[in-house]
Each structure stands twice: as C-alpha cells, then as structure tokens.
Amino acid sequence: MKIFYTYPPAMKNIGVILIPVFLLINCKGERESAAVNDTSAWPSTFGYGRLASVAEIDSLNTDVRPDGEGLKPGSGDALQGKTIYIARCAICHGKTGVEGPYSKLVARYHDPHAKGEKAIGNYWPYATTLYDYIYRAMPYNSPGTLTTDEVYSLVAFLLYRNDIIDSTAVMDAQTLPQVEMPAKKLFIDDDRRGGPEVR
Amino acid sequence: MSEQDNKGGKYSGPRIKRRALLGGAATAAIVLVQTTFGKVMQKAITETELTGDPTKKLGPPPGIVGTRSPFEKPVKLPSDTSSRTPLQDLFGTITPSDLHYERHHGGVPLIDPEKYELLIHGMVKKPMIFTLRDLKRFPSVSRIMFLECSGNFRGNKETLSPQEVCGLTSQSEWTGVMLSTLFREVGIDPKASWFLAEGSDAAVMTRSIPIQKGWDDTMVAYAQNGEAIRPEQGYPARLVLPGWEGNTSVKWIRRIEISDKPFMTREETSKYTEPVAGGKIRQFSFVMDARSIITYPAYPARVEKGWIEIRGIAWSGRGKIIKVEVSTNAGKTWSEALLQSPVLDKAHTAFRFLWNWNGEETEIMSRAIDETGYIQPSYKDLLTVRGGTGGYHFNSVTRWVIQRSGEVYLHPDSKK
Predict the structure, then answer these.
(1) B280-283 and A187-189: which strand pairing?
(2) Which residues make Cβ contacts (< 8 Å) with residue B166, sequence separation at least 6?
(3) Mutate to test the interface with B, among A48, A64, A151 (most CBs of B within 10 A)
(4) Does any CB of chain B come closer than 8 Å to the CB of residue A115?
(5) Is the minimum CB–CB distance between A48 and chain B shorter than 8 Å?
(6) Is the reported ipTM for this assembly greater than 0.95?
(7) How far apart, in whole angstroms, are the C-alpha atoms of residue B391 and residue A177?
(8) pLDDT tens digits, one per residue of B41-75
(9) Which of A14, A41, A114, B231 has its CA 20 to 30 A from that of B189?
(10) Which of B168, B33, B176 minimizes the C-alpha distance to B95?
(11) Cross-chain Cβ contact B203/A37 below 8 Å
C-alpha cells in the first residue's frame, strides 16, 4: 500500500472510496512501465548475434583479478620502474609521486601526514589493480602503450615507493598477487539498507 | 553603446536587454549552434532581424532541425573531468539531452556504429558478440529515470547555484534492450554472481556489478529522449542501472564478462569508495540515497516580497519519492510540498510549494522522503554518522538564505 503515498496531498481530498480504485489502476500501470519484460511467450533464443571466437575474446579480455588471473607473462623491478616512471608518469604525478598536479600516488600507510590522501599505500586494497589499471588506461595522454614488462616495473616502483615491497623485489604473475596491501583491512561492504536509518 | 546604457544601472525595457547581447554594431544577438561532435559555434543575428513587429514580417520556413531561442542560453558547467546540468534553468523533470551532465574518465570516444560490437563472455554457455543492429532487433524497453554521479556535492561557499551544488544529476527517457534479455541468449552459469562492465573510451572504464542487478533492471540503452544516445552519454550504446551511482552505468559499453567474484577495478577500490566512521572505507555503495534540492528560488535568483512558488526536484535510488517537505523558517517547521504526478520509480520528481514571503530574511530548504521511509538528512547529521568526513554519496539537505534585498545565497555548510 506504499503506492498511496505517491499522491500529492491534494489528491487525498478525493476520498477513501475512490482511492482504492485509483490504486488498482495505478499499480497495473506502474508495473507495465517498470521496464520488465514478460518473457513467457518468448522463444528460447532470438538467434541474433554470433558466437565469439577465442581470439576475439582474448583481444579484449585484459582484466586482472586479485588472485592474479589475467596477469600476462613478463616482469620488472623498482629500479627499472623508476626510469619509466620519470619518462612517462612524472609529468602528471610528480617526480616522487606526491607533487601532482594529478593524483598523488605515494602515501605510506603509517605516515600521519598522509591522512586524508587516497594514495596507493594508504588506500588501495589490491596490488593487482595497479597492473590492471596502468596497463588499461595509462599514461593518460597515450593510454594502452606500455609493454607488460614496463607495467610490472612501474607497479614494482610504486609499491616500493609506498613502502610495501623491497627495492629489489621482482614483480611478475606469481609474485604480484602475493603482495598484501596495508589498506585492505579498512574496506567494508556497503551497510546502507534504506529505511529510516541514515548511514 | 551598451556600456553607456548600463551606466545608470537602470533597466529601461526589453530593447536595452537585447542590446546587452550585442557582439558588434550590426549584431543584435548571438545564437549558439552545435555541430556534430558537440562543438558550439556562434552565429550572429543582425539588428534588423530583431527589430520591428514580428507579426509584420514573414519568418523563416520550416527547417531540418530545431534550435533554442537565441534568448535562451542554458549551458553546462564544465571542469576537467565533468560537466554539470543547469538545474536552475530547467523546468519539469526531463533534462534536454545536450544538457545532461557528463562525467568521463578518458574523454569522449568517437565510435562508428557500423563497427560497434558488444562482447558477452566468461561464465556463459555461449560467448557472443552483438552488433548495434542486433541490439536494436531484441524486444525493447523505455524507462524514465535519473542518473546521478556519486560525487555530486559542493557546499563550501555562498555563491553556488543548484548547478554547482548538485548538477551531476540528470533525467532522460532511455530506450534499449534489457541486459536480462541478452543474458538469456548467452546462457548465464547459475554459479555466476558478478559481471564486469567495460567501456571503449580511453580509460577503458570498468566496474564490477552484482549479477542480480543485471537480471533485475539493467538496460543496454541505445536511445535517449527519443534519439540515438549523444556521444557524451555513451554513443552508440551504454548500460543504465536504475538508481545506482552513475559510474556503474558504463558508457560506450563494449564488453561484459560474467564471473563469480568482483574484479576490484581501480574505480571500485581507490576511487568510488568513501571513508566512513571508524576509519573504514565503504565499498560497493551502489544505491543513490534520497535527495532533493530547491531549484527556485536559489542563487543567483533574486525574488520579490509576496507569493513565490518554491520549486525543486527530489529523487531516490531506492524507489519512489513519497513526500517532500519544505521549510521556510530555517527548519523550525516543515510543510508538505505538492508532487507532480506521475511519480516514477527512481526518477526525478518535481515538487512545488506556494509561499507568501513577508520580506524578512529567512532560510528555505527541502527534504525528500522515499518509499523505504528514508528521510534526507541535514548536513550535520550526515557528517556525524559518516565520522566527520565528506566524500561520495553525500546527499544532505541544501539550504538557501533569502536576504531582505531578495538576493538568494547558499547557506554554506561547514564542518564546525
């Protein structure tokens, strides 16, 4: 009977007898407009579209998951990463990852001055996301141009700068998913449920 | 010429107002004309075209596309990353498509509809590719609903208009094929619980979405307000997820991967998440909670003593708006506003409240109540439950101060 409240207050004057009639019409009308198809009379398939080949899927499927699924062969360390960072990334993110002008990348988890920053060390829950995102969308002005070795190297450099791995640690498809990010423990699922409670 | 007219600061009739539009001696008005890719060009109207009695001069013949009156110039307010809808300039609840807010992460891509393809793969029986033509052949659905960016809040100074406070919300009628219809075609593994949505912009934007939302009401839309989706809105096809934060409605959709886990993309970990009480970070906060804003009177409007129709919009990502309350005395008492029917699910709803202003300084505000019983909170209350931090999903009440002069200013919220 929630529907009743959707009427503007003026409509209440119509009276108690008329309202239930309106309700029935309205309920039906709203269900029809609720953008849900009745599929009972549909064929099991419409036959539109075509099967995708493995090659077609592989050409687009670059995503990398927290367990490492999707990581490509290749490797790199912080030293190699530093050179690439200076050449390709520093112009936006600053010489050491904190100067900007765009997104700060470095904020060590226990650094009190980094409070409020949303950087890799104090805000990113998964190291694999770094690989996925850099490979996918960076550098901003020439996205998708880094090799897998370059991406592993950059990830190693950024993890090192954020005090998460050693300067000599090599990042590859085996080691990267093992990296524990300090901010992971901060994440909770959405706890809002509607209703009177504000969260 | 117009400088001289303005010296006394006096307004002396419509002729002067027109002259304010002068761009040169022979030019009486500047018309904005939009080209195919959103470039706005200026076209001049001459003084002779404007003067005289319009009933004594034959007007131009029917044309191939309509244009706005040269006297109406609603514009979006762009920044590096977004562009905001001029809520204070609009009427009713449908946002003109060219004024729909924009938020994108790697610019607006140019996509040839003949080459467009949507791939659905992963935990499916048949991985499939659909062309735009294929998508349009399936049973279609239309739905009027709002889209709102979850970062839709500004409030730190008095001179902010509704566009600046919360112009990252817009409403359209979207038409397309339900994602559930495509799910039927590819055959979803019953163990699947999430899917990845990926756009073909330069950010190759990705979000993980619970599969149930795909079955419930997610649409692959190819049309907006009766025509093909605009490039800025995802041409030729995008997702639309009713009631959920805008970035999940991935534009320029090119790939959907069915999975049994979320992918933890950059956008859903380091970006569209919000710090909450106890030093925690809230993730996958998809639904937009109820909100409203008075769009008139609001900065920069100026009002006169007497009857004023207070107008605004209210919306909720959890369902219908059941009530909007308005206060004209700084929140001491609240009165119920009129809602314009039909009140739609997860849609902007127009509200109105007739008020006789006595000319004394006061503060006006609105609060939305949705069908779950949620009441739009005050800034202070919301800040308190969030542990003193702002961020995404900040949907607090907007307050407008009306000064004795009739000038209207935002009541700037402050953390103190």
Answers:
(1) parallel
(2) B87, B152, B153, B154, B291, B293, B398
(3) A48
(4) no
(5) yes
(6) no
(7) 29
(8) 566 666 666 778 899 999 999 999 999 999 999 99
(9) A41
(10) B168
(11) no
